[in-house]
Known about the structure:
Blueprint: E1 2-6, H1 12-19, E2 23-28, E3 40-42, H2 45-52, E4 56-59, H3 85-106, E5 109-114, H4 118-121, E6 127-129, E7 142-147, E8 162-164, E9 170-172, H5 173-177, H6 183-191, H7 195-205
Parallel strand pairs: 1-2, 1-4, 2-3, 4-5
Antiparallel strand pairs: 5-7, 6-7, 8-9
Helix pairs in contact: 1-7
Amino acid sequence: MKILITHEESQVVATAFLRTGNDAYSCDLLQTSGDFHDRHLQMDCFEAIKLIKPDFLGMHPECTRLTLAANKYYLPKYAERFPNIHREREEAIEHFFKCVKALEAVGCGYIENPIGIMSRLYRKPDQIIQPYQFGHTERKSTCLWLFGLSKLQPTKVVEPDIIRHKSGRTDSRLHYETLKLPREERRRLRSRTFTGIAEAMAMQWGKN
Length: 208
């Protein structure tokens, strides 16, 4: 299949599909940090779709303004700190719906995002997966909206490594260990797809 994975500078998912014999490409506004530079399109994702004309489309739209994790920052008391946050959320919502339209046109693929407002504004995801279902000791609820695909089946369930704070709050190790990193580096590392999930996608969906 000709496969395009968008919003993916890391190239983790695209690489997994390449290794299973598919004609795969990644796309992002940023230069790739992966190994297959000739398979990376540094451009707008919708322009990349027109160029590649994929049979399978995987989309990982930016989640910063869609996730529920930072909902408190939309309160009036944070208006001075985040003056454009409401406009940015509206733009993120519009972009997500453009991704939906693109996937409906292709007919085969998925949208990936953490738990957020699109479960209410669009529809509930077809499934929610965890890295610890695919061999990683991390906890990170990940929503998948599927188009022409069966649900992703767990490949190796392991015990998650959970940090417990004195307050009683729990945290995943990745989230905890990236807290003090610069914002963009933190965002990049947290948005990177876990290899176990990418490999499961390629093995289970790469031959459709």
